[in-house]
Every structure is written in structure tokens, then in C-alpha cells.
Write a sequence for this structure.
């Protein structure tokens, strides 16, 4: 397990270096390679990014008033 975590950390470090030094096509190629070789890591990172995005959305909406938010239709059960 420790080897997997260490290898994953190395892959992420390598990805960070690639992000700093490559063009967009190179970045997508590297991300695709990571997704193929480290599926669990990629899925976990995607989930973490989704949760982070949701948290940022909540923070951004937190400053909004109730009038700024969309109205939800009322559901009635007959």
C-alpha cells in the first residue's frame, strides 16, 4: 500500500511538472496516460476536484441573497 501511495505521489509530482512546462495537447496526453496507468488515483482525483468545485460554488453562492437564487417549484402530492 505504501508503494502505491509513493508511486501515486511521484506521478502527481510528474504531472505538476508537466503542467508547468507543456502545451495543452501535451497536458491532455499526460492526463490520459495517468488515467490509464493509475485508474483509482485518477477517479479519486476527479472526485476530489468535483467536491472542491462544489465547495467553491457554495462559498460563492453564500454571499448571494435569497432573491438571487432560482425559485424552486412547489411539489404537491395529490
Amino acid at each position: 500500500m505504501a508503494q502505491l501511495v509513493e508511486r501515486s505521489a511521484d506521478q502527481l509530482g510528474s504531472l505538476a511538472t508537466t503542467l508547468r512546462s507543456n502545451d495543452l495537447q501535451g497536458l491532455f496526453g499526460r492526463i490520459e496516460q495517468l488515467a490509464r496507468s493509475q485508474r483509482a488515483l485518477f477517479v479519486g482525483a476527479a472526485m476530489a476536484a468535483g467536491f472542491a468545485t462544489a465547495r467553491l460554488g457554495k462559498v460563492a453562492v453564500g454571499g448571494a441573497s435569497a432573491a438571487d437564487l432560482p425559485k424552486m417549484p412547489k411539489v404537491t402530492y395529490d
